Amino acid sequence: MRADRTGNSEADGSVICPSCGNRNIECIGRLRDSISFAGLTLEAPVSGSLLYRGLNCLLGFRHPTLGEAEYFALYDNKQTSQWTSNSIRTDWTLILERINSTRKDCVRVLDIGCNTGELLALAPDYFKKYGVEVNTAAAEVAAARGITVYHRIEAIPAAARFDTIILSDVIEHVADPASLLTYLSGRLSAEGEILITTGDFENPLWRKFGASWRYCSFPEHISFISESWAAKLCESGTLRVDGVVRFSYIELNRVKFTADFILMTLYGIFPRAYQKKGETLKSVFGKSSDVSIRGIGMSRDHIFLTLKSARHE
Questions:
Q1: CATH number, domain at 128?
Q2: Is residue 132 classed as helix, strand or coil in its secondary structure?
Q3: pTM of this prediction?
Q4: Is pLDDT above 70 for 2?
Q5: Nearest-5° angle of CA 147, CA 148, CA 154?
């Protein structure tokens, strides 16, 4: 699959926040080029672009990015295993605990980016389960699990309302998270809520290493949020923050933690040299995948946000 493109910079060279449209932004640093995208090995690398932060809305974002049609083409492939898991993920545990505490006779749950429906399959059988999935092959697996699957958000019936809307490791793939959440807030039932898990743009290690932090090295990750961003979003009065939990995906033993910390620090300080050395070593073994960047398990670098409609306070 080919990914040879120049991005979407404005003609005059200026950069604006894709969410609030403001030019009051700061450049955090250059992101690495990547030969991989969502688990696929590409024919040509995706340019790393630059990492910015909007100083008004506090959104972190990649610029330039690919076009929407290009992203959909990359996501809609025959692969179904990229986001599957052999164990219950930490974020899934948090989400399941939240939705299982809902005391209703009928719960309508919508999982945006449901993949093969693994998460929804873990929810109680009496739940009415819906999903949005652009990957046709993954959507077919989810449908076989009894989940009503839509290929696009726009395909959801206008009258449909949901008690829980899940975005698990999804918001970072969206160019304008604020607009998406505002739209989804109109799809909530009276007591409904939106559950979001993603990388925390305010975690200490991200603040230290900036564009060299591992979470923003994936080319499919184009937006980065935080509790402060959510608070800014809620100033509009459409949504309110009902819960914030910071977590780490894995726990490392002391030896693994020390080794990964050294590698993480080396990449954070010398990203180009680290990548070049890694690429040289991979070429020796005939591998063309991206050089691994350490950092997972180093801190509580993910955030679990619960948002509710402000109209029903």
A1: 3.40.50.150
A2: strand
A3: 0.91
A4: no
A5: 140
Instruction: Give residue-wise pLDDT tens across range 264-288.
Output: 999 999 998 998 888 887 776 666 6
| DSSP conformation letters of 204-254 | HHHHHHGGGSGGGGSTT--EEB-HHHHHHHHTTSSEEEEEEEEE-S----H
Q: Is the pLDDT of residue 4 over 50?
A: no
Q: What pLDDT, in 10s, does the model give residues 105-153? A: 679 999 999 999 999 999 999 999 999 999 999 999 999 999 999 999 9
In a domain, 37, yes or no: no
* Phi, psi torsion values for 255, nearest 5 degrees: -65, -50
Q: Flag whether 35 is in a domain.
A: no
Question: Is 299 strand, coil or helix?
Answer: coil
b/e sequence 264-286, b meaning 16+ C-beta within 10 Å: bbebbeebeebbeebbeeeeeee
Distance CA 159, CA 58 (A): 33
Please report the DSSP string for 31-74 in residue order. Answer: PPPEEEETTEEEEEEEP--EEEEETTT--EEEES---HHHHHHH
- The answer to whether residue 44 is domain-embedded is no
Q: Cis before residue 124, ω within 30 degrees of 0?
A: no
